[in-house]
Batch of 2 targets.
Target 1
Amino acid sequence: MKLFVIGATGRTGEEIVQQALARGYHVTAFVRSPEAVTMRHERLGVLEGNVTDEEQLSGAMRNHDAVVSALGPRRVFKPSSLLHDSALATIRAMQRSGVRRLVVLSAAAHFPGIPNRIVSFILRNHMRDSLAMEKVVQDSGLDWTIARPPRLTQEQYATYRSREGAAPRRGFSISRKAVAAFMLDAIEQEKYFQKIAGIAK
Ligand SMILES: NC(=O)c1ccc[n+]([C@@H]2O[C@H](COP(=O)([O-])OP(=O)(O)OC[C@H]3O[C@@H](n4cnc5c(N)ncnc54)[C@H](OP(=O)(O)O)[C@@H]3O)[C@@H](O)[C@H]2O)c1
């Protein structure tokens, strides 16, 4: 498996890279600041680029089997179209370079329910971008999976519960390790192809 990772320098992204290497994958981390990647591994390649640039992405992702994005804005309260713009460029790049498998990180706050509506209101700029990202992914025609976790933690477990189209019951948080494990499992299994998955502890 040759995996292309966007957001590899983030807290979830680093887990994805580590676990993918542990599974024996070849990993390409596509990052804006290569110096931020401190990990060294013979199967890890680091490429510098702009995550919203279709041209750069398509050249870089040729010959990969799957793309995973754990991108997130560093300032969640500011208006941004980073997630949407990156997803659109990534999808077009995948279509050009013949890569079909895409797993992206979204948020459980998009599920119905009053607590989710409150979170969505507080984080409205980020949530608007994240929903726009989901829409372009769903319209892509690729073998996509959208992972919607609740609050992310730095706990050490890597197990999770998952549910198609809904949040697992009483799932209020999940570790970034477990999110990474789900996203890699989603690449390997066809269970969540073209599906939104709610995941939680
Ligand atoms: N925090 C939560 O409780 C929570 C809950 C549910 C869902 N989520 C979702 O999970 C996602 C990831 O969370 P996280 O905590 O793992 O993220 P994080 O640690 O903040 O990492 C964000 C990643 O995105 C990259 N990035 C940000 N802006 C960029 C830009 N303009 N160009 C290129 N790369 C950029 C960062 O790169 P640099 O290192 O170069 O900055 C980093 O790799 C978020 O999108 C969030 O919506 C979070």
Note: Residues 7, 9-13, 32-33, 36, 51, 70-74, 82, 105, 107, 130, 149, 151-152, 176 surround NAP (CB under 6 Å).
Target 2
Amino acid sequence: MDNFKSGFVSIIGRTNAGKSTLLNSLIGENIAITTSKPQTTRTIIKGIVNRNNSQIIFIDTPGIHRPKSKFNEAMINAAYNSIKDADVILLVVEAAYEKISEENIKILERLKDKNYKVILVVNKIDAISKEKVLKIIKLYSDIYNFSAVVPISAKNKKNIDILLDEIEKMLPEGQPYYDSEEYTDQTERQLVEEIVREKCLKLLNEEIPHGIYVNVEKMKLRKNKKGEEIYDIDIIIYCIRKSHKGIIIGKDGNMLKKIATYSRQKIEAVLGLKVNMKIWVKVSEDWKNNINFTKNIL
Ligand SMILES: Nc1nc2c(ncn2[C@@H]2O[C@H](COP(=O)(O)OP(=O)(O)OP(=O)(O)O)[C@@H](O)[C@H]2O)c(=O)[nH]1
Ligand SMILES: [Mg+2]
């Protein structure tokens, strides 16, 4: 394996910029949940791309935003920590913005004078004119010396190969870190928890899903009468208020049924197995500010 290259690439940027959508497009699998709501990603998620002459390990991070709790502070710290060991950093920005967002100014301040190799990834070009894309590129290039600039559409997988080529050029020579069959560090349990959280984010209104935490209590494989493999999965959705619990369960339990059905369908598709799922909702008022809790899940 002469001249083989390997390294770590951190994907950072403002919340909702499309980082997790990009990770999924790079890997070619749905390993990170994505929604139109801010603060979707809460933890660092690794995705591995194996190419002929390189192995690239991508690190998706929680989006940068103004933190309002210890939990959110920990999310942002996790994002910034990921850049310390990165060989290349992808700063993902939205093409539609007319100016540089406050969060991105903060990120660029942290990257300054540190010799990082930073690629400016201008995302969502499917939704915007070429002129506007060029304008935003100029704005960013005027304030920071990027190693490369790549306009992409993470959603439509446009220019993903060009981005991979640019990254490969910047990686150091080295042996692969992971087996070539591996493509994520997410466990099945984490995937299940994230899928349920994704459905909550999509089905519930703004404030509630940000206060929830999903935990898999039990996950067991068994054979049913027909001899098919089936997963029995027990899940608890924790929320911060009694009133939220009522909304999550819904009238006649309809909302919870919806969450359970959509979650089960996606989990079955992702794991490729039948799923028998039970979900409960519990109130845990202050989990967001409980440091032990925060440590547990980050
Ligand atoms: N039009 C368009 N929308 C996109 C594109 N990429 C992502 N999106 C949408 O942008 C929204 C946010 O995407 P995510 O991938 O969840 O964003 P994120 O940066 O991971 O967000 P956080 O995890 O909250 O930091 C979703 O509704 C995506 O469908 C794109 O290339 N074009
Ligand atoms: Mg994300």
Note: The chain has two domains: 5-170, 188-297.
